[in-house]
What we know:
By secondary structure, the chain is α/β, with parallel strands linked by helices. The protein contains 17 helices and 19 strands.
Amino acid sequence: MNVIESELLAGYPPEVEIAAREVAASVVASGRTLVVLDDDPTGTQSVADLPVLTRWSAEDFEWAFAQQASAVYVLTNTRSLDPAEAEKRNREVVRNALSAAGGEALGFVSRSDSTLRGHFPLEPEVIADELAQASGVHTDAVVIVPAFPDAGRVTIGGTHYMRDGSGGLTPVAETEFAQDATFGFRSSRLAEYVEEKSGGRYPARDVIVLDLNVIRGGAGAIADALDRAAGGAPAVADIVTENDLRALALGLAEAERRGKTLLYRVGPPFVRGRIGQEVRAPLTADEAFAGRAPGPGGGLVVIGSHVGLTTRQFDVLRAEHPSARVVELQVRELMRNMTSSAGIGFESLDPVVAEVVAALAEGDVILHTSRTLMRTDSAAASLQIARTVSAGLVHVVRRTLAQRAPRFVIAKGGITSSDVASEGLQIRHAIVRGPMLPGIVSLWEPVGGPATGIPYVVFPGNVGDDRSLLDVVRVLATVHP
């Protein structure tokens, strides 16, 4: 059921203009560094010049904190894990971050999907519990902010919507994302979503709703609404614009100044708004390559996501970049070989590796999984299939890198981009330099390791229009030796 955005907004106050520097000043005053536990790497798409970790030992955090940034991203990739593994990983990250901070003030953000897929409420609850055990800090509220206006996700009147491109809004539970094999859901109203996902432990009637009347009513109004929060109470926030994110940031800062301890479960742009970063313009080719001459040969585009938008983007790229070699990783054959008593496994991918390496000498290569999605009625089994396929892509990328470094690498999809970064390219530390498209696709500069000097683009499966992947490839392919 579509509704008209302008009609919904007519009953609320207009947005209030807020400068990013005003928010940034409140961050400096707090002395707090945000640690962002990102359940896949796509959450960096809205920020710039922040450190990223794919490993989380205390030593890794020491490197990240030494960058003296307002926020640090930790690529936990928990969306690819089962609940027990996700819990363990969240605890490790919080414990090691606190150890490395040496008493310096930290805040914690659980970054997840703007279309509500992920381990909720597990992850914020685990973070809160670990904070209580490790430092005696008790969380008053978990503030839930999935909105991602850059990608057409907005929350109005407590309901989360997707824009349709023509002024209409579709409740997110009516989109393909709500049918996710592992993280599906039925509720678009966020208070009801919280009740659904918590199995009723947090009744919808008890969820604090920060609607646009509150968000646009000033920092004091937001802090007042959170005054009654205690014991990790869920609070959900309306967001339509960047100014709304900044208004919320000031209100949260005021609530924390009054003594509230808050955790955040959020979509990508929340961190940009919370730390007072300006919206950065997309990177040029020269900026993407950090002013260096790119290596010879072509770049590598790795496509693992199966959402409809990704397939359409792939079709456009293939049609309008005909010089690129297209190489398919056949999923059914891989799964058959992985379960074969002959123990073939990833050895069956050797011809794929050879084809990719040879083609990179001539130009760009598009490595994709077969487009027919394998899934089962079991969420756990579907997740295991996704992990096996991603491991196959990682195998190809890692073997390729050992033989020929691509000019650039673009990875399409959440699990895909995480595994390609941490395992395929063996990136341990990186700096996110900024977006390749406005607010939705980020570029990392690897720091150390075999991928040094290779721009790495993290491209979510569910953002952009049909031509967006082609647009990014064209930027990176404009510089030739």
